[in-house]
Amino acid sequence: MGATCPAELGPLLRTAASRAAVRILLGTAIKYAYEDIRIWAHKRFRPYPGLASDEQAIGQFRHWARQFCPTS
């Protein structure tokens, strides 16, 4: 037979599991953000950036998004 736990522990265990999952996900997000900061710090604006052959969708998105950029 399997062990059982009192009904009062159910919500407590679910809360503990949820908090543990949140800590793991938040820690992972922070880790990747810190890694990306190095990239963001060295980015330069290029009005016509080169795209690889499989990045056509990015070019189409940039063309669409340009309508929302202020003209200067």
Topology (elements, then pairings):
Elements lengths: L8 H32 L15 H10 L7
Written account of the structure:
The mean pLDDT is 86. The chain is 58% helix and 0% strand. The longest helix has 32 residues, at 9-40. It has 2 helices and no strands. The chain is mainly alpha-helical and 72 residues long. The protein has a domain at 12-41.
Roughly what percent helix? Answer: 55-70%
- Radius of gyration of CA atoms, rounded to a whole number: 23 Å
Number of strands: 0
Rounded mean pLDDT is 86
Q: Give the strand content.
A: under 5%
Distinct helical segment count: 2
Low-confidence stretches: none
Give a concise summary.
The protein has helices at residues 9-40, 56-65.
Question: What would the keywords be for this entry?
Answer:
58% helix, mainly alpha, 72 residues, elongated, single chain, 2 helices
